[in-house]
Amino acid sequence: MCWDWIVDVAKEMGLRGATLSTGIGGGGHTGRLHSSHFFEMADQPTEIRMAITEDEYERLFKRLELEEISVFYIKTPIEMGTVGKKAN
Q1: Structural domain boundaries in the chain
Q2: What is the rounded CA–CA span in Å between residue 21 and residue 46?
Q3: Tens of pLDDT along 62-88?
Q4: Model confidence pLDDT, tens digit, residues 28-45
Q5: Rg (CA), the chain
Q6: How far is 48 from 3, CA to CA, in rounded Å?
Q7: Could you give the CA distance from residue 57 to residue 4 in angstroms, rounded to a whole number?
Q8: What angle do CA 7, 10, 16 make, to 5 degrees?
Q9: Which of 5, 6, 24, 42 is the most buried if burial means most Cβ atoms within 10 Å?
Q10: Strand ranges (DSSP E) for 1-88?
Q11: What is the pLDDT of residue 70?
């Protein structure tokens, strides 16, 4: 599966985290329907969400462009931070 490889690459690059969400089915950017099946989970729609800086985005996407994969993405500006007790 492509998503686990992308998460591993991000981790190797020192990016802080990713949230994965899977769906039962969905229409891809090519118009093709993707869905999970009992025996075959490889076509299951998966979304990866990452809160990363602009510099981290640039480094990650330069790396992804070197690979022979196709990734649909949505990039939007966010505000991120932490509040409360620091995690270990």
Answers
A1: 2-65
A2: 6
A3: 999 998 888 888 899 888 888 888 766
A4: 666 666 555 545 555 567
A5: 15
A6: 7
A7: 18
A8: 100
A9: 6
A10: 19-22, 25-27, 33-35, 46-49
A11: 82
